[in-house]
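Marked as duplicate of an earlier ticket. Keeping the data here for the record.
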Amino acid sequence: MVQTEMEIDIKEDIPQTNTLIVAIPDTGLVSIITAAAIIEQQNLKEIGEVKARNLRSVIVLEEGLPKSPIRIFGSDKANILKADIPIGRTGRIGLDFSDLVLSFAKDRYENLFYVSGIPDSQRSTLKIDDLEIYGISTTSDYIKQIESLENVKRFKYGAISGTYASLIATAASKKFPLQAYYVSAFPNFPDPLASARVVKDVINPILQLDLNIEELIEKGDQLQLQFRKLASQTKQMLKQSQPPTKGLYV
């Protein structure tokens, strides 16, 4: 186990991959919808869980069985640490989570990776190909990768708060490579089309997973209904601090 205020309990051997994908509820639930698509399409197995004693007691049910709300899934294609509940955007919980992720990743992976949403008040007027994507990295090598991607801009100025911000800061302080991508998304609703956009222009070219974005598009209404309750919980959490905002010179 990795020992912090939280603990990771690995139940099966971890398949070897270079990247750990982190998915926690945030704007548009982009990371959660994307992680769910990877898990389903790449047949990832549950290989571990986070035991979070400093979070309120909560379980999630999957096919009638109780599960930890923060779990690790893996295959030789991808490893994902996925939270099915909002994680505190302020205070100690976010810091503990970031410390846990870095402690777990440092001797197992070459880099951390996540996608998320950036609230866009004009989202309802935008088609999938109009959604903007911005990239962030803690190292110069991955900045070059961001700049090499078509349809992706560098996130040069602005502010990020909450657990993902803590994760970026912790990775930067430890000089651990992290790359993050933010896509325009509905501020208060699940946004499967934003996930499809980031899968097409970021996930598939970088991680070479060849995910089927048509499934995300076709299941848009179903996914919105499926994740509606989590989106409501996340909306309440987002009120505690400001979501990512673009600066004047992104």
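See parent ticket for discussion. The chain is about 35% helix and 25% strand.
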